From TrEMBL:
InterPro entries assigned to the protein according to its UniProt record, in alphabetical order: CheY-like_superfamily, DGC-Regulatory_Protein, GGDEF_dom, Nucleotide_cyclase, PAC, PAS, PAS-assoc_C, PAS-like_dom_sf
Residue intervals of the PAC domain: 203-255
MF annotations from Gene Ontology: catalytic activity
Coiled coil (residue ranges): none
Protein name: REC domain-containing diguanylate cyclase
Organism expressing this protein natively: Thioalkalivibrio halophilus
Keyword Phosphoprotein: yes
Length: 433
């Protein structure tokens, strides 16, 4: 049998004894009763330990009438209260209900069944009211909440939903949430979503949706299935929030981590990742790709003669010129210092050498402001299916070394590095100048 802690606030000993006797006769439930003869005493007990319910007489030595209830509710609002009234004072009982009491009982009508029923329903109503307030607070949270029926028709949407999507609740009631779809996810994505949701009663992930004004945004969404006691599906509840700012910050951090600050080109870290992908494509699909490593001839002399500010301007302008000459699919990165590297997808050996020589001539053809003529030396190779990053970069570095050793302002091509198995159809080294 469940036991409940009841605080009996009654100054009349006879009435208090009567209530306890009636509670003893409530066979279906047990109550542990503590008495308080004054309001101050009751408030002290409520501060010391929890109670499930309070049974309150409005006429106490230190407080009278509805003020007694008001002070009790204000000081200890986390407990349901049933008021006892006398003299058939139903007007006072009605006023007590308006002030927050769960029920009122005329003393002269008390009997075990009535008292037990009143206390039980008072606790149930209080619990239900708290749950309703909790759900209302949660529903008005900063996160968007959408409730649909099992067929996916929208039944409720909160204010955060309107703020994020631009749709008022009455505009989407009865509609399917697919009205928000952006088109960025394919049918396979939604198939996987629904499969996981129906198997596990839950799905969570990133999804792109479209606002009422047509703008597309990313959101983090959690969808849960709500079932009744028989296991039948009753609702779907989706909770989501806009992660546009989070994505923007992630993009900024990614940009800072993978971009050279001076030139705005990709840095060596990003190049390493791109090279891994290019080598994987070459191995898997036997696709052709070229690579160029180049640097500025006598760059130290340029810095010593004109100053580092002019040297930095040369690096920035050279980066702009090279990027302008490359194709959209090509990948350009600053390797470090005055060295740069280019990946040329879908490019054979002849195409890679042609691109390198084109870059060499274009850089040499136009003097740089405040620095005069600038030339570059270039090492060229192609990616092989059995290459790893170290092997390829060593071959590029050797080719660049040969270009410089040959007098600079020229292009050297290595098909294979010394010691590698060379393909019969191509020579290991060729120079263009």
């Amino acid at each position: 049998m469940s036991e409940y802690r009841l605080l009996l606030i009654e100054d009349n000993p006879a009435d208090a004894e009567l209530v306890e006797d009636l509670l003893d006769d409530c066979a279906e439930r047990g109550y542990v009763v503590e008495r308080a003869g004054r309001l101050r005493e009751a408030l002290g007990l409520l501060e010391e330990r929890p109670f499930d319910i309070a049974l309150l007489d409005l006429g106490l030595p230190d407080s009278q009438g509805l003020d007694t209830l008001r002070l009790l509710v204000e000081s200890a609002g986390g407990i349901p209260v049933v008021v006892m009234t006398g003299h058939q004072d139903r007007g006072t009982g009605t006023g007590a209900i308006r002030l927050g009491a769960q029920d009122f009982l005329p003393k002269e009508e008390l009997h075990p069944a009535l008292l037990a029923r009143a206390l039980h329903y008072a606790m149930e109503r209080y619990r239900s009211q708290r749950e309703v307030r909790l759900m209302a607070t949660a529903f008005d949270s900063a996160q968007a909440i959408v409730v649909t029926d099992p067929q996916g028709r929208i039944l409720r949407a909160n204010h955060a939903f309107t703020r994020i999507t631009g749709y008022a609740e009455d505009e989407v009631l009865g509609k399917n949430p697919r009205v928000l779809q952006s088109g960025r996810q394919d049918l396979e994505f939604y198939h996987r979503l629904w499969t996981e949701l129906l198997e596990n009663d839950h799905w969570e992930g990133e999804i792109w949706n479209r606002r009422r004004d047509g703008s597309v945004y990313p959101q983090w969404e959690s969808i849960s299935a709500v079932r009744n006691e028989a296991g039948q599906l009753e609702y779907f509840v989706a909770v989501f929030h806009d992660i546009s700012e989070q994505k923007r910050l992630e993009a900024e951090l990614e940009h800072e981590a993978t971009t050279d600050r001076l030139t705005g080109l990709y840095n060596r870290q990003r190049f390493d990742a791109e090279l891994d992908r290019a080598l994987a494509r070459t191995e898997r699909y036997a696709s052709e790709a070229g690579a160029i490593l180049f640097d500025i001839d006598h760059f130290k002399r340029l810095n010593d003669t004109h100053g580092h500010d002019i040297g930095d301007r040369v690096l920035v302008e050279l980066s702009r010129r090279v990027a302008h000459s490359l194709r959209r699919a090509d990948f350009l990165a600053r390797w470090g210092g005055e060295e740069f590297v280019v990946l040329l997808p879908e490019t054979d050996a002849e195409g890679a050498r042609y691109m390198a020589e084109r870059l060499r001539r274009e850089i040499a053809a136009t003097p740089f402001e405040d620095a005069g003529p600038v030339t570059i030396s270039l090492g060229v190779t192609i990616l092989h299916r059995d290459d790893d990053p170290d092997t390829l970069l060593k071959r590029l570095d050797n080719a660049l070394y040969d270009a410089k050793h040959a007098g600079r302002n020229c292009t050297a091509y290595h098909h294979r590095a010394p010691g590698e198995d060379a393909d019969a159809e191509a020579p290991p080294l060729s120079l263009l100048q």
